[in-house]
């Protein structure tokens, strides 16, 4: 097929180093039992723990409370969850025995708290512990050489801060010194479907949708695939496959010839099948006329950008195009050619051109210099426009205001320590190189690092915001996730921590913690009202029904003493005030001026005053005295001799506690 686009060169089925990737699965959507083919054979059985701990053994040793439990993680994958405190522990499996000096590579996906060491064959001295990420799974592995005939594959775990809490899945042991994507052991692999896709990356995708459509595929008698081998060869024939020259890397094929790809599937019964695909490597075509408008709904497969220099600013060069920016003389033109390859195998070509600036014009004459011993100094001028340097090496002459566009093919480190990136323009501020300008409509990246991001709109979808800063002994962090905002500051100079959190369900809370003593104090507000509390058990809360304090005591009845009986003696503490009530109390005969104890507060009661609290009591038209002593006793006194009274004594007293 020949495609001609506006202002373009004619191209025809150009091969640009594409690589075909294969994967296998049990279901038509590729999600059940998915694994990438073409890797090394897995020598371990039940390597994804789908059969529990079959073929696996645990060695928890002296690890306190050590457990190894088969579970399902947040990704929906079956895994082992290892927990415990104290000593190291491990799990191990026993594949077929290996001979002395056998080289193998073991790998595993792990996350959690602890350190992990993967040993391809039993040899503890040849593999170091790696720290496990608590945020996401990471691959941990090592290459080992058996020191003797052995059949033990081991994964060790070492505690961090006395804790082991690790999830592991997708374990693989394979011969050689390279780890490849996980796949089951050959005897466990019985895929029903095969999928494939082509791109320019040597790394195969782990997304099943990339391999669609999935095609029913099964070896003879239901056997599974043991290995998949892909090789390449060039040929002048597009109909007959080559009989020799096959290599595992894509060879350079002359224009007008053909690139053949051979895929060999070897099954677990040692039978095999072979498939071929062929690509024509075209010759250069002639310039064509403007093409018709492209069809709707076609996506961009690849974008290829090349550069060339020219003395013309109107006619694009016909040769000299390179993938790196060349050095172009001042006054000449730098052309950029962009080729868009679409998913329907069509392509279009576009050009842009920029003139390389000459040296700046001489500035106006400066003021006359001072008179020197040899006469007048000459007139001084001003600097011209410093212009822009385009080169693949750092300019040797640097001055403030110089702009440098780096045209090299790999990152380099400048003399000031700045890492200079590909196709990036830098500005020299007199001391360091700084990125001068970066403009884009859309930026997609796994990670962006910047001192400042100034944006009109910032939208985060299904994600979270986390910021951590460290200034000497002071560490601060801010997290925005789901319906929760949390800010924390730890100050090592005084060993304290301050936290504040806002949650749409839990409300607002602030907490101060003394890390040395463990004492903390909190304050906040939620739908039940404002509150404050501390680790000593003190609290206060404002509710729609009033104020609640940790010092509150509900109305409590006291037993009468000293000949007093009947009636009701009780006390309560509300909002920091102690209240006492005596109602309908019967009393013995009283001698004028004598205080008689009628009740006693419980030992340690918060209602016991620091000083005696005295008030008046009333009987049948007779004034008596009533007080609460600092020893917790309740006393009554008659101002005159009084006979025994039946149910006539009433009294009350209130005072702030403390």
Q: Would you write up a description of this structure?
A:
This is Collagen-like protein. Keywords: Collagen. This protein is an all-beta fold and 658 residues long. It has six domains: 1-39 and 183-292, no CATH class; 48-178, Jelly Rolls (Sandwich); 300-355; 384-437, no CATH class; 464-535; 553-656, Phage bIL170 RBP, head domain (Immunoglobulin-like), CATH 2.60.40.2460. The protein is built from no helices and 45 strands. The strands form ten sheets. The protein has a nine-stranded antiparallel sheet, with no helix packed on it. It has an eight-stranded antiparallel sheet with strand order 38-39-40-45-42-43-44-41, with no helix packed on it. The model is unreliable at 1-16, 123-127, 371-378 and 380-384 (pLDDT under 50).
What's the gist of this structure?
By secondary structure, the chain is an all-beta fold.
* Residue share in β-strands: 35-45%
Rounded to the nearest angstrom, the distance between the terminal CA atoms is 96 Å
Biggest sheet: strands side by side, in what order?
29-30-31-32-33-34-35-36-37
**General shape:** elongated
Q: In total, how many beta strands? A: 45
Number of domains: 6
Structure classification:
mainly beta
Helix fraction bin = under 10%
Whole-number mean pLDDT: 78
- Helix count? 0
User: What's the Cα radius of gyration?
Assistant: 42 Å
Largest sheet: number of strands, sense, barrel closure: 9 strands, antiparallel
Q: What kind of oligomer do you see?
A: single chain
Return residue spans where pLDDT drops below 50 for at least 5 consecutive residues. 1-16, 123-127, 371-378, 380-384
């Amino acid at each position: 097929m020949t495609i001609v686009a506006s202002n373009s060169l004619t191209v025809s089925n150009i091969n640009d180093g594409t690589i075909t990737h294969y994967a296998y699965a049990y279901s038509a959507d590729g999600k059940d039992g998915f694994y990438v083919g073409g890797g090394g054979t897995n020598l371990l059985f039940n390597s994804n723990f789908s059969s529990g701990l079959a073929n696996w053994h645990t060695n928890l040793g002296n690890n306190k409370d050590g457990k190894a439990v088969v579970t399902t993680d947040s990704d929906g994958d079956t895994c082992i969850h290892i927990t415990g405190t104290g000593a190291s522990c491990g799990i191990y499996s026993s594949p077929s025995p290996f001979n002395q000096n056998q080289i193998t590579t073991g790998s595993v996906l792990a996350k959690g708290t602890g350190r992990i060491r993967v040993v391809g064959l039993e040899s503890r001295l040849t593999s170091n512990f790696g720290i496990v990420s608590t945020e996401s799974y990471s691959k941990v592995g090592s290459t080992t050489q058996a020191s003797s005939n052995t059949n033990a594959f081991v994964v060790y775990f070492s505690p961090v801060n006395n804790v082991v809490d690790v999830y592991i899945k997708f374990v693989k042991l394979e011969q050689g010194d390279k780890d490849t994507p996980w796949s089951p052991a050959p005897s466990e692999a019985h895929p029903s479907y095969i999928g494939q896709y082509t791109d320019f990356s040597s790394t195969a995708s782990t997304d099943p949708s990339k391999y669609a459509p999935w095609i029913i595929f099964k070896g003879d008698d239901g056997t599974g695939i043991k290995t998949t081998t892909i090789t390449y060869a060039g040929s002048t024939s597009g109909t007959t496959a080559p009989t020799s020259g096959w290599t595992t890397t894509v060879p350079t094929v002359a224009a007008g010839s053909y690139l053949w790809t051979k895929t060999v599937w070897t099954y677990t019964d040692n039978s095999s099948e072979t498939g071929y695909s062929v690509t024509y490597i075209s010759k250069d075509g002639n310039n064509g006329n403007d093409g018709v408008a492209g069809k709707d709904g076609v996506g961009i497969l690849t974008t290829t950008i090349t550069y060339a220099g020219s003395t013309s600013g109107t006619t694009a060069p016909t040769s000299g195009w390179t993938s790196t920016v060349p050095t172009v003389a001042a006054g000449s033109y730098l052309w950029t050619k962009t080729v868009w390859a679409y998913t329907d195998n069509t392509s279009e070509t576009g050009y842009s051109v920029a003139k390389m600036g000459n040296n700046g014009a001489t500035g106006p004459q400066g003021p006359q210099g001072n008179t020197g011993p040899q006469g007048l100094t000459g007139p001084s001028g001003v600097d011209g426009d410093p212009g822009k340097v385009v080169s693949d090496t750092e300019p040797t002459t640097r001055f403030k205001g110089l702009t440098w566009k780096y045209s090299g093919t790999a990152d380099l480190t400048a003399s000031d320590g700045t890492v200079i990136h590909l196709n990036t323009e830098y500005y020299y501020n007199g001391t360091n190189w700084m990125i001068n300008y970066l403009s884009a409509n859309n930026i997609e990246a796994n990670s962006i690092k910047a001192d400042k991001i100034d944006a009109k709109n910032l939208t985060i979808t299904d994600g979270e915001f986390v910021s951590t800063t460290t200034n000497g002994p002071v560490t601060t962090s801010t997290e925005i996730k789901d319906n929760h905002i949390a800010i924390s500051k730890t100050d090592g100079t005084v060993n304290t921590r301050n936290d504040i959190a806002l949650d749409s369900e839990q409300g607002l809370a602030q907490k101060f913690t003394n890390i040395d003593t463990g004492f903390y104090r909190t304050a906040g507000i939620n739908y039940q009202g404002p509150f404050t509390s501390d680790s000593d058990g003190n609290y206060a809360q404002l509710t729609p029904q009033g104020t609640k304090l940790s010092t509150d005591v509900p109305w409590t009845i006291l037993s009468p003493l000293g000949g007093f009986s009947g009636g009701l003696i009780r006390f309560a503490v509300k909002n920091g005030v102690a209240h006492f009530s005596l109602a309908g109390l019967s009393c013995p005969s009283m001698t004028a001026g004598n205080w008689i104890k009628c009740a006693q507060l419980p030992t340690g009661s918060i209602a016991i005053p620091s000083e005696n609290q005295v008030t008046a009591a009333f009987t049948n038209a007779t004034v008596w005295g009533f007080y609460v002593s600092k020893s917790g006793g309740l006393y009554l006194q008659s101002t005159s001799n009084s006979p025994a009274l039946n149910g006539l004594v009433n009294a009350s007293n209130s005072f702030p506690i403390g």
